[in-house]
Write a structure and sequence with these properties.
heterodimer; A: alpha/beta; Rossmann fold; 9-stranded mixed sheet; two-stranded antiparallel ribbon; 17 strands; disordered C terminus; B: alpha/beta; 4 domains; 14 strands; about 45% helix; about 15% strand
Chain lengths: ~375, ~475
């Protein structure tokens, strides 16, 4: 089930997914960046988000003169001088405001211009600015998270309309921010499971809330801004995959030998937000429990572009730092991967759960108010336990 | 309501007809976006105003927005002239490493401790931008905003006179507009009012804006004691960066700022802590340009804690300290000094111990912990010090920076030590043991790969060696 796909569209043949140039990443995305989908790429400054964007443009335009690419710049200009390939089919536009971008997509749909790939560099900056403007104009801080989710759902709806009508892919290049806000605290839906017997009862599952003290986490700026909260799944439903790019060491034995080989590489953490790629049985909304794939890549010295790492299998740095050391198994109870850390994890008291259940109703109400244009399918996506 | 932010020129702002509607929107917290998306009936109910009034306002609002964004939202074919281009720094090796020089339409940040040559580099840029285009310059003028005292004009004059190519191209200080601001309010006024006007009037003659330094007043004046305040500061920083980028894009000019450093000391924890990949602490070193050994050490230090038996601090464990590189220069000097002292009488030894203690201060190479407390001259292994400096203003600033450059100063053993000639001179003045070593490090850049270049500060400015 997907967003707003009409039967007639399903019949039309799908174009080949766009390759990122890193085959492991393509695999994680189920063959590449698909049409009719929105993707998010985020990461710290300097890790190569823009470079990845340029590589996508290059892969989209070379060898296919039909394909057109639109690069939407925001505050930071796109380094278009770095594109040393035919730029005949590349178009640009600059938007500095959230509202401007919204209007742009509306008009783009009316104008009937077809772009196969649209990149928006710095999308998260527009969102952050938008939130700050509203807060400065006296908008109530308590409601700002819901408003952010609403407005994001709104603009992503426009984008989804475009991707579906034009068979396009949209890739958002976002910043990340550090935050100590932990999503699992008081997140209603995560603590509860829908009993799969047709009744609408919510039951609490046993779980270990693993909280680490004084730790700041890097998250997409769409999540980590002034309007943090636990309903981000409302707009995340529109995004097919979120790809976080981080640095890590290339070799497992770094520091253990005297060779002092400090080679590093990039790690892409592909979060399958809607359970499409990995055929997840349940549409998990809990960030830490969304299935992710881990891809290692780096700049290939000869071509200068991002490529897979052909590493010595005996010396691969197993990226056991991706997930918090806790994962739900099938029965819903928690299993700790790293026993050494269980002592710092925390059991939630029944009182706390009780408190949370009372919020379920209001959370669902809030969600229902969110989508202005009724999209019955969308509601199903989030709350349908069948997936 | 955010009408002013969305449509600063709209007549709707002052229209008396809608003043009560706008007031209602403020009270009920309805934003411009809701006016665009919700139906008139729904809005009228929320705002307790008439449907006719709301729908009339909606139409006008939509019209105004379309007008404002009509041209801006036109998609353009890529134009070569609007593409960012590099301006020379006045040094060939540095230009090469940067992918051609300092790029227009983006922010370049130069950070480092004091006396590392930030201002020297910026002054050199203010002259290099005036160079003819076939020499990599922009044949353009420059704005130099200082926050700590006035621009040292004498030093700039010296730079011009010490370089043939500057003299030949008739480069002069008269092409540098300079202003100094003494507090945050002045700085705001200069950046938000005076600078845009100056750029408008100069009609594209200015291709470089320098701010030395960006964080000076902000660090002093902006407080962050609560979540709200720190969010406000983040917003302040991003608004500042966006204003600079707006000018950079509009006039296709380069913005180069100096940034000061803050301290991020390594703290010994007593509880084990394991960082995850996406933890800020885990990634931080790569964003701020620390040495590889420092990054790994700080990532792993708290993990070691659990493995070691109680009471032993892991950073004192020898195997773990192997991550850090040996301070070979320091050990060499100690060896040489002790060789000179051997066989001499005890009065000199006292003098020498005095000199070695001042040594460790000079070299900033004392080991992480007090490992060296009871150290003997030759036997101990010294480790190079952990990096602990981070550029100010945090990620909210770094996200807008396209090229981040670190200027670093360290000390290495002087030639007299390396050649083992100390004995010949018999001089145990610690000042003569050390030689300054400067590194120009590109931490990250959209336009080039990370790289390190050695440089020295000379009469001409900054020169790669």
């Amino acid at each position: 089930m997907s967003l707003g796909i009409s039967l007639s569209q399903l019949i039309t043949d799908n174009p080949q997914p766009l390759s990122s140039g890193v085959s492991a990443l393509d695999d994680a995305l189920n063959k590449g960046f698909h049409s009719r989908s929105i993707y998010e790429i985020y990461g710290p400054p300097g890790v190569g988000k823009t470079k990845m964007g340029i590589q996508l443009v290059q892969n989209a335009t070379t060898g296919n003169s039909e394909r057109k690419v639109l690069w939407i710049e925001t505050h930071v200009s796109a380094p278009l001088n770095l594109m040393d390939f035919d730029k005949g089919n590349i178009f640009t536009v600059t938007t500095n405001k959230f509202t401007q971008l919204l209007i742009f997509f509306k008009k783009l749909l009316e104008k009937d211009e077809k772009y196969d790939l649209i990149l928006i560099s710095g999308f998260s900056q527009l969102v952050t600015d938008h939130i700050e403007i509203l807060l400065n104009r006296g908008y109530n801080f308590k409601n700002i998270h819901e408003l952010k989710c609403k407005h994001l759902a709104l603009i992503l709806t426009e984008m989804t309309k475009y991707t579906h009508s034009k068979n396009a892919s949209i890739v958002l290049l976002n910043d990340c921010m550090n935050t100590s806000f932990q999503k699992d605290i008081g997140n209603v839906e995560d603590n509860l499971e829908v009993v799969d017997d047709g009744s609408n009862f919510l039951v609490s599952s046993s779980f270990n809330s693993h909280r680490r003290k004084n730790t700041q986490v890097l998250r997409s700026s769409l999540v980590a801004n002034s309007a943090m909260g636990n309903k981000d799944n409302i707009w995340e439903a529109f995004i097919r995959c979120s790809i976080g790019i981080f640095w890590n060491w290339k070799h497992k034995d770094i520091g253990n030998n005297r060779k002092r080989n400090f080679e590093k590489c990039r790690i892409a953490v592909v979060s399958d937000l809607n359970g499409k790629e990995m055929q997840n049985k349940k549409r998990a909304t809990y960030k830490n429990e969304v299935d992710c794939s881990i891809v290692r890549f780096d700049i290939d010295e000869s071509s200068g572009s991002f490529k897979d790492i052909k590493a010595d299998l005996n010396n691969i740095n197993f990226d056991d730092r991706i997930m918090p050391p806790q994962k739900k198994n099938k029965s819903g109870s928690s299993v700790s991967i790293s026993p050494s850390l269980t002592d710092s994890s925390r059991q939630v008291s029944p009182e706390e759960l009780l408190l949370d259940t009372s919020l379920v109703g209001s959370a669902i109400d809030a969600y229902n108010k969110t989508v202005y244009e009724k999209e019955p399918e969308l509601e199903a996506i989030i709350y349908d336990s069948e997936g | 309501m955010d009408l002013y932010d969305e449509l600063p020129d709209s007549n709707l702002l002052y229209d008396v007809e809608f003043s009560s509607l706008l007031e209602a929107a403020r009270v009920f917290q309805v934003t411009v976006l809701e006016f665009l998306k919700l139906s008139a009936q729904e809005l009228a109910r929320t705002l307790q105003r008439s449907v006719v009034e709301v729908s009339k306002f909606q139409n006008l609002l939509q019209k105004d927005l379309d007008e404002q964004y009509g041209v801006l939202n036109n998609v353009n074919q890529l134009r070569e002239c609007a593409i960012p281009h590099p301006i020379t720094t006045g040094d060939i090796s540095i230009d090469e490493a940067l992918g051609g020089g300092i790029f227009t339409k983006c922010i370049t940040e130069v950070f480092g401790e004091s006396s590392t040559g930030k201002s020297q580099f910026l002054m050199q840029l203010s002259l290099a931008v005036q160079m003819p285009k076939d020499c990599g310059g922009a044949e353009a003028k420059c704005v130099y905003i200082t926050t700590e005292g006035d621009l040292p004009t004498q030093r700039i004059q010296d730079m011009i006179e010490s370089r043939e190519e500057f003299k030949k191209s008739s480069i002069s200080q008269s092409n540098i507009y300079t202003v100094s601001c003494n507090d945050l309010v002045t700085q705001e006024h200069i950046l938000n009012v005076q600078l845009p006007i100056l750029l408008e009037q100069s009609k594209g003659a200015i291709k470089l804006v320098i701010i030395d330094s960006i964080s000076h007043h902000m660090r002093v004046e902006l407080e962050s004691n609560s979540f709200k305040e720190s969010q406000d500061n983040r917003y302040y920083v991003s608004r500042l960066a966006e204003a600079l980028l707006k000018l950079a894009n509009k006039y296709n000019l380069a913005v180069v700022v100096a940034n000061q450093v803050g301290d991020k000391p390594f703290i010994e924890l007593t509880e084990p802590q394991r960082y995850l990949l996406s933890d800020y602490e885990y990634q931080l070193g790569w964003i701020v340009g620390w040495k590889d050994s420092t990054i790994l050490f700080r990532q792993r230090a708290y993990e070691e804690l659990k493995a070691s038996s109680p009471g032993i601090i892991p950073s004192q464990k020898k195997s773990f300290l192997d991550i850090l590189s040996d301070d070979e220069d320091h050990m060499l000097i100690e060896k040489e000094v002790s060789r000179v002292l051997n066989g001499e009488n005890s009065s000199v030894t006292r003098q020498a111990s005095k000199s070695t203690s001042s040594l460790s201060i000079r070299n900033e190479s004392s080991s992480v912990t007090d490992l060296g407390k009871e150290r003997k001259y030759i036997s101990s292994k010294r480790k190079r010090k952990l990096d602990h400096r981070v550029p100010n203003l945090g990620l909210s600033w770094a996200n807008y920076v396209s090229t981040r450059i670190l200027l670093k100063k360290s000390y290495k053993a002087a030639p007299v030590i390396r050649r083992g000639e100390l004995r010949v001179y018999g001089n145990i003045d610690p000042a003569s043991f050390w030689q300054v070593k400067r590194i120009f490090k590109i931490v990250y850049s959209t336009y080039c790969r990370p790289e390190e270049i050695s440089y020295s500060i000379t009469k001409k400015g900054i020169e790669s060696v």
